[in-house]
Amino acid sequence: MKTTEPVCCPEFEVQKLDNKTLTWEEKPFIMETIPTCFHIPFPPSIGKKIVKMMDLAGKSDACYTDLAEALILFRDPSAFRSEIYLSVTKKVEGANNTSISGTFQARVFDGKYNSIPQFIKEMDLSLKEKGLKAKDYCVHYAYCPKYAKKFGHNYLILFAQV
Predict the structure, then answer these.
(1) C-alpha distances in Å from residue 103, one per residue of 21, 95, 144
(2) Which domains, from first to last, does the chain contain?
(3) What is the pLDDT of residue 6?
């Protein structure tokens, strides 16, 4: 009997977000926080929070039907706390509902988590060339670790609010 593995992470299309400008007006998200140690999260806490968020969104029928449209953004307001934002289609009962508005420059990078400071420097240089400066950053990982290995890429998308 052949079983099909459920798709966790759809194959990412780099051109969809690389070097794109996005403008969000009250884009709905739900948010959770996790502890970090100098920006390094505790991996088990990430999975637990994301599962909790996905469950709440699913119960409220607020998940994107196309997984490729869903975003999970990470933002580090301090060295000891990270925020996780899950994009949803509407308000989610029992969740910390929020929204994000602003103009964002998106850029795709392929590399390890610990390369983010270098990627931010590269992004800052490309923004400067456009006469822009980032007010804040958040990151979306296109693949979970299992699928990064499967596809041979560890894409992450930096979103710079400008």
Answers:
(1) 7, 25, 26
(2) 17-161 (3.20.80.10)
(3) 55
